[in-house]
Amino acid sequence: MYFSIIAILLILMNTYFLTASRDMIFAQKKSFLLVQAITIAANLSASFNDLTVDGVNQIMDRLDVTGLTHITIIGIDGNALYDTNTGTDNSDPSFVAKNISEALAGNDVFYSKFSGGAFSSSAFTPVIDTTGAVIGVVYVHEYDVEQGAILIGLQSTIKSISVVILLLSILMVTFVIWTIMHRLTSILKAIESVREGEYNYRIQVHGNDELALLGDEFNSLTDRLRETEEIRRRFVADASHELKTPLASIRLLSDSILQNEDIDLDTVHEFVSDIGAEAERLSRTTEKLMSLTRLDNKVTVPKEPVDIRSVISGTLRMLRPLAEKNNIRLESSLDGGCLVWSTEDDIYQIVFNLVENAIKYNLPGGSVKISLTRTADNIVLTVDDTGIGVPEPDLPYIFDRFYRVDKARSREAGGSGLGLSIVRMTVRENGGTIEAVRRETGGMRFVVHFPPYHPPESDY
């Protein structure tokens, strides 16, 4: 496209401008020669009703005619009455009987041609007496080499400029193509490196154009890929560790039963009970991993209006035995009419994980308070506990998968480090937000904001 534009401009420079300049010179020649011829014819008409050699010579001697190469006065009979040639051109192609006859018929005739580096221009004008009769013809001719040289010089200059422009265009296009190909090669090399798993590869594309923007986007993509890969590796390692620990305990306990022939029945019951606890812990971890997988894959589940208050009440009934076992008091303050567009399972996951954590990581004799309020723009679920709380440096990471503040206590409580990750992802899937803050009086506060459900307006 670039070369096409340059080619069109060069063609215009070498054709249109030269043609326009030549036509302008032709127009100037026509005006000049016709004026000269008409001036001579007017003087002859005013002096004679019949042209003679002597009379024409007298008139021509008095006239100051300059700038003409050849002047000829032709009588009515077609014979030359006056002829002068101050130039070197004696072969005017327009000096033919046809043009003379047309002038004798009372018409002005002009002819001009650019050839051989010069302009050859001629004009024929009738000489008309006082009665309106044609008594002769004035022929003037100009052979202009100077303006021809100017036009040739202009043509040569334009050709030289065209060659320079063409060479500069080739150099510029070559440089641009080389630059683009060099930058594209860098991007392709970076893509190959990332394809091989080198997610730390950074591409350096300078400038402010689209390729530089592509390089920045590529670097952002590799950063996200690197983060995703690190999360995946950490997730696989943590998941493997979480699954390996109960499996190792189950295997150790079962081996102890099988290898000890003298083991008493009470010990067998204790070991079997421990195996059941570890199996239950393994089952919980597997279910949470499946929940995270479902959330990661964005599996669509039909949604409906859900009354959060009803779900909370049912969840608290299920968790009350755990609270009583840990000597924790459950308190609730629930507003009615809190509908959200979700599923009961999602709301149950959120409430269950938050309240269960608040019970497990609380202090004996402590309390957990669940409040549900509705404002004009939000439905707010708040879970407060009087437990051990989370240190300030750990707060940004408590929603990360497998993250534990106190690993020993978390394992003792049966936690897998997945509950809060499930809560955050589920809240986001339902268009809400969640935040965790330390309470000034001790413990933690989790605040969840849901967009309220608005029934569609009836058409009736």
Features:
single chain, 460 residues, alpha+beta, Beta-Lactamase, Helix Hairpins, Heat Shock Protein 90, 3 domains, 5-stranded antiparallel sheet, 10 helices, 12 strands
Description:
The protein is α+β, with helices and mostly antiparallel strands and 460 residues long. It has three domains: 2-154, PAS domain (Beta-Lactamase, 2-Layer Sandwich), CATH 3.30.450; 210-294, Signal transduction histidine kinase, dimerisation/phosphotransfer (DHp) domain (Helix Hairpins), CATH 1.10.287.130; 304-450, Heat Shock Protein 90 (2-Layer Sandwich). Helices cover 54% and strands 18% of the residues. The chain contains ten helices and twelve strands. It has helices at 2-47, 53-62, 97-104, 145-195, 210-259, 265-296, 308-325, 344-360, 407-412, 419-429; strands at residues 70-75, 80-85, 109-115, 118-128, 134-144, 304-307, 329-334, 339-342, 367-374, 379-385, 433-438, 444-450. The strands form three sheets. The protein has a five-stranded antiparallel β-sheet with strand order 2-1-5-4-3, with helices on both faces. Helix 1 runs antiparallel to helix 4 and helix 7 (308-325) runs parallel beside helix 8. It starts with a helix and ends in a 10-residue tail after the last strand. The relative contact order is 0.06. The model is unreliable at 407-414 (pLDDT under 50).
